Amino acid sequence: MEFDFDTPIGLRNTHCQKWDNLSVLADTGAPGTPEDTIPMWVADMDFAAPPPVLTALRAEAARGYCGYFGIPEPVAEAVAGWMTRTHGWALDPDHVRFTVGVIGGLKIALEAVTQPGDGVIVFPPVYHAFYRVLDALDREVVESPLILQDGRHQMDLDALEASLTGRERAVIFCSPHNPGGRIWQPHEIQALAAFCARHDLTLIADEIHMDLTFPGETFHPTASTAPDCLERLIVLSAASKGFNLAGGETGFAVIPDKAMRERYDLATPRAGAGLNRFGMVMTKAAFSDGDTWSAAVRAYLADNFALWRERVGALPGVHVVEMSSTYLTWIDFRGTGMTHGEIRKRIADGARIASSPGTQFGTGGECHNRFNIAMPRPLLIEAITRMEAAFADLQ
């Protein structure tokens, strides 16, 4: 089956956050904002959802009932079926708990296993929402900066171990990593799991980008890769990134250990939110029947990245960090010799592109930017051409 990812579906003036909320970006600049700006910031795709999802959504709307959603077990079975056939992870549907997005699940997880004032380890540069959640819950952010080796980010667990204070209670592990699309290898995941066991830390694995792995690459689920850590593991994920369903605000937690599930369940009522009926319908359809679309979109994204890396990476002093998953490319501009502000001005005013400033992602983000390349290729080529023009004077 062929899918048309090249033709724009028209997202401006549709209540689309990525296309219609550019005014919230203080540095997008004039005169191009917003009509002439290419949005490459919010993490969703400019593509229609998979046909099986749209079919299920239309059928649900045609029923005419928009009340509370109940009996999530069939959706959990769809999650388990997808994990088994796609990632080789034979999880028990009874271990699944649905959440209001992955961030909603993260809040519950942190309330279940930590207290105000406790330290929570993150590996920056990393997804900026982690910082907002930890701040809102009055947890201490403990940064363990990634190091760049051979063009890829690596964890430095030795440095982290030397810096521990004893206040740390949990680790948030982003796998695949955002930003940068790093797929962690089995030995790295196992080393982190052993570290958590050694220091009695709960491992919270955000695996929301698991279904955006490029063809020829393999995602390694934390639970099946490091089974010795199951008693201290909470996995968070969703269909929202892999199938472009973020508007459904539906995620899930997988908690293999019974005692940990009980702690999580006790914390859940404090979240005060129920399940999104249409998000649950979309999730079930995606994981039940989205295989063909998923393969097609991942191949398209991989080709987008290859083109982006080839041309933007050829700009003097600009380094495109290698990635194997996601559609969020991490660009290092330090070799240009420009300041962070100068770089942002060229991107916003010169290229007329809205990207995510690297400083949002914690330590290591200065003079970096994150760009979302999940867009029709003609628009991506226009964005690349603008970047080449904006930085044409670099030597």
Structural classification: alpha/beta
Give a short account of the largest sheet.
7 strands, mixed
DSSP helix fraction: 25-40%
Low-confidence stretches: none
Strand content: 5-15%
Molecular shape: globular
Separation, N- and C-terminal Cα atoms: 45 Å
Work out the helix count: 13
User: What is the H/E string?
Assistant: HEHHEHEHEEEHEHEHEEHHHEEHEEEH
What would your notes on this structure say?
The chain is of the alpha/beta class. The protein is built from 13 helices and 15 strands. The protein has helices spanning 17-20, 51-63, 73-87, 101-113, 129-136, 157-163, 186-198, 222-225, 258-267, 277-289, 291-312, 340-350, 377-390, and strands spanning 38-39, 96-99, 119-122, 140-143, 147-149, 152-154, 168-174, 202-206, 233-237, 251-254, 319-320, 328-332, 353-354, 356-357, 368-372. The strands form 4 sheets. The chain has a 7-stranded mixed beta sheet with strand order 2-10-9-8-7-3-4, with helices on both faces. The longest helix is centred in the C-terminal third of the chain and has 22 residues, at 291-312. It is globular, with a radius of gyration of 21 Å. It starts with 16 loop residues before the first helix and ends in a 5-residue tail after the last helix.
